[in-house]
Amino acid sequence: MSAVNDLRDGSQHLGEFAELYALGVLEPQERAQVEAHVADCADCARALGAAEATVAALDDAFVPQCEPPERLDARIAAAAQAVVPLAARRSVRRAALPAPSFYATAAALLLADTRQAAHDSAVLATIATAHFNHITLTARESSAPVSKVLYARDGAWFYLVVDSATCDCRAVVRSAAGERDLGKLEVRGSTATLFVRDVPRPTSLELVDASGRVISGATLVYSGQ
Amino acid sequence: MVADFRAGKSSGLEGVYRAYGRPLYSVARAVLGNDEDAQDCVHDALVRLWQRSGSYRPERGSLRSYLLVSVRNEALTRKRNAARHVHIEERAARDEQLEYEIEVNDPVERASLRRAVAALPAEQRAALELAYFGHLTHMQVAERLGVPLGTTKSRLALALRKLNAALTQRGAGAP
Predict the structure, then answer these.
(1) CB A38 within 8 A of CB B60
(2) B5-22 pLDDT, tens digit each
(3) pTM reported for the whole predicted model
(4) Among A58, A69, A93, whose Cβ lies nearest the Cβ of B113?
């Protein structure tokens, strides 16, 4: 323990603690000291990187690979889109796990809108019978209205709902085929919506206001990626 | 992606998860043994590293390796904390059995690494197996082997350096 204690004042380099850290055999306090040291020592960062690469090779060879659950996909996406401090972000994540209020809000927006036009019954049927993910668009301008996108897990469609009766925005989507301007959203009652089927596996979606500024956006994540 | 991750951008976290979510989750799942704990582990570790701006520096090399080791360390901490109520010998015995149940994904990698591990001196190989496959701390490895802690640390470090040398030679096309 003495060697790692000496790391505090920078009088020693990591030495064998690089390998011990990478192997995961250190106690949390020792790990913290190693991390603090490599933050200021490029040579030890390189040594630690080499040890980590070796353990990663062991992981690749010996650890059975399994797909992350879709619930984890959603949790990571929610964390990425949250723009609140750490402590609050944690509480948001915990509260959002079962997500009853989120689904209720999205469903209410969706149902309210779909009652207004006959063709929306097909949209509703598509969504109601599909597995989908959802994400709140991150505001990049204070003027951005609250917006959510529901999207099929196989990337076959997405449904954008903007909580604004005065939305004057265009939607821009990106996919492997490139960027595409989908035009202005259609306002119905208190929301503006857009249902799109012909952009396979979209990867990101942005709202652009009348002056051309991107006011909000989201990255669409699929399981298995 | 790396720059976005270091900058704490949303696209950085999402991109890293898309690229490395599967191996990260697999490592957590292998250490912790159940889906719920593995999910919590990957989520908490990734978000913490993403929020800690600059925790990863380029000199450290591969971001993927850095994340794999970080998630593994997080999983090991959780497992050890949870196991404090379990008798150490019972847990060690269970871990010892598990090492022989682990499957290997890539036969070529498996053969190469097995050769490299087999070529280690017996005392280094024993220490490595208890640490990597058995998930023990250095002090627990020392207790199990009945050797001083300093000796155990040296054996572990030497073992990993030899594996690193073997993998580097293989990557360079050496037999």
Answers:
(1) yes
(2) 888 788 888 999 999 999
(3) 0.59
(4) A58
Handedness of CA A77, A83, A89, A95 (dihedral sign): negative
Q: How many CB atoms lie within 10 A of CB B105?
A: 15
Residue type, A60: D
Of A46, A49, A63, the CB nearest to B26: A63
CA B105 to CA B97: how far, in whole Å?
A: 19
- Judge residue B54's burial from the number of C-beta atoms within 10 Å of its C-beta, 0-12 exposed, 13-18 middle, 19 or more buried: exposed
Our CA dihedral for B129, B130, B136, B137, rounded to 10 degrees, sits at -90
Q: Which residues on chain A are in Cβ contact (under 8 Å) with B69?
A: 21-22, 24, 52, 55-56
ipTM of this predicted structure: 0.84
Q: Which of A64-73, A116-125, B4-13, B166-175 has the highest mean pLDDT?
A: A64-73
Tokens describing residue A202: 């979209």
A19: closest chain B residue by CA: B157
pLDDT tens, residue by residue, B28-83 = 999 999 998 999 999 999 988 888 766 788 888 889 999 999 999 999 998 988 76
The confidence score (pLDDT) of residue A96 equals 35
Cβ atoms of A14 and A44 closer than 8 Å: yes
- Angle at B9 (CA atoms; ends B7, B15), nearest 5 degrees: 105
Closest CA to A53 of B63, B26, B54: B63
B30 touches chain A (CB under 8 A): yes
